[in-house]
Structures are given as C-alpha cells and as structure tokens.
Amino acid sequence: MIKQLLEITKPGIVLWVGITALGGSIIANVDIIKSIIISFFVMISAGGSAVLNNYFDKDIDKIMNRTKNRALASNKINPKIALIYGFILCILGLLGILYFSFKAFILDLIAIISYSFVYTFLKRKTPFSIIIGSIPGALPTSIGYVAMKNEIDIIAFSLFSLMFLWQPSHFIYLSLFLKDDYKNAKIPTISVKYSYEYNKILSFLYSFSIIPISIAIYYIANLSNSFLILVLFLNLLWITINFTYWKNIINEKVMFISSNFYVLFLFSLIIFDKIIIHKP
User: Fold this and answer.
1) How many CB atoms lie within 10 A of CB 209?
2) Which of 1, 53, 176, 212 is at a distance of 20 to 30 A from 166, taking alpha carbons?
3) Contacts from 73-81 at CB under 8 Å and sequence distance 24+?
C-alpha cells in the first residue's frame, strides 16, 4: 500500500520539481535550510497534483502501454483513497507554502488547479493543451523564489519564462516516441494531430528559445562569471544535441532524456554558484 501511495505521486517528476524550486529559492536568498523546507512543501503539493492527475486519468492510463501498470489503472489502490490522499497532500503543501508567503501560496494554488484540473481535461480535447500544461511545470521554481523573497519581480518572471518555454519541446519529444500509445487512447496530442516535420520544427524553436533566458539569468540574478562560462558551455552542448537530432542521428527518446539533463545541470549550476561562490 505504501509503495502504491508513493508511486502515484510520480516521484521522478516531484524530485525534478524540488530541484527547480530549490534553485529558485537559493537565487532569492542563500538560506539552505529554509530553501530545503520550501522545496519540500512545493514537492508535497506537486505530489498531490500528480495523485489527482492519476485519479482523473485512470481510464486512459488503462489503455496506454506506458501507464497501464500504474497503481490506479491496474486497480492496486482504491480510487477514493487516492482522491482523498491527493487532496490532503495538496492542502499540506499549500499550508506549508502559505507560512512563508501568501503570494507563493497563490502561485502554488494556480499550479495545482492548472495541472490537476485544467490541463488534465484539456489534453483530451486539444493538442495545444501543452501550453496550459507548461504553466504548472514552470511555476515551481518561481514559487521557490517568491516563497523566499515574498516578491514577484523580473527574476521570478525570468525563471518562470525559462521553464515555460522548456516544457513544449520536452513534451513533443515524449509524444513523438509514444505516438501510438496516445493515438490508441484517443488523446489528440500534437504528435497525433500534426505531421512529424511540424513537431520537429516546433520542438527546435522552443529548444532554442530557452538559451537567451538561461544567459539572461546570469545578469539579472547577479551570478558569477564562472556560471556564465559554464552555462555558455551547457548551451553550446544543447545546440549541438539539437542539430544532431535535426540530422536524424539521435531520436526523440534521447532528446527527451537530454532535455531533462539540461534543466538538471542548469539549476545545479545556479545552486552551486549561489552556495559555493555565494555572490550576493
């Protein structure tokens, strides 16, 4: 039972959310303990959102090969228990964030609603639900920042913009290598509704759109020159990987994994720069 309760929170996504929230809070103020606590509550609410998403998606999860063995789809857990569990996690996460900042609380509430309810239902109707789905994926780093600083400023907006523009290409890669799964479940993803060439061009454009923002963060967040050098190298590597994909040398699954690592390395650089170099 405990294993299933953990599984339906989507731990991999929750960990990723925690890393971006930690990066955002560390940029606001190098208070490691406080940043970890803030990130923990962001992760709790993200886990609750994932549980609600699992609950509402259990019918289509049963059809898709990738998701048919999930706890709710395979009837390993009572749906009513999962629903209550999801709401409890969301409430606990929200209350934890509220302790630090009402503004961050509102952002966290928007993330929960936009993912668990708006995106979850829109993805059954339109391929452009990925735009709405990009909002909850982009908010955790801003929530971390605002919870620490209690201010929505250019840095909070830049962090949000970075992650908002990162999401579509990331999802396009996923939807392309799982196209048959989505098609069988009658989910009108962008890969199902539009040509492969269109998807590839769109992913390419979104992939490159995040580069100037990642560099701009160096200036607006007052990071060190070491960060600038490393982020330029990271972006050069990212450009190389994208062109390799464009030439059909690597596939969408490799791009999906690579895009995850791009975010992981970028936020690790931010955290390392602020904690180790500690440039105020």
Assistant:
1) 16
2) 53
3) 76/4, 77/1, 77/4, 77/5, 77/8, 79/55
CA 110 to CA 63: how far, in whole Å? 29
Instruction: Determine which helix (DSSP H) or strand (DSSP E) holds 124, and give its type and residue range.
Output: none
- Residue 23: how many other CB atoms lie within 10 Å: 27
Its pTM surpasses 0.90: yes
CA distance 272 to 229: 14
- Cα gap 12→116, rounded to integer Å: 17
Sort 128 into a burial class: Cβ within 10 Å, 0-12 / 13-18 / 19+: middle
Residue type, 60: I
Distance, in Å, from the CA atom of 107 to the CA atom of 163, rounded to the nearest integer, reads: 15
- For the chain, residues with pLDDT lower than 70 are 278-280
Kindly give, in sequence order, each residue whose CB lies less than 8 Å from that of residue 151, ignoring residues fewer than 6 positions away.
103
In Å, how far are 32, 108, 109, 160, 242 from 103, measured between CA atoms?
21, 9, 10, 15, 37
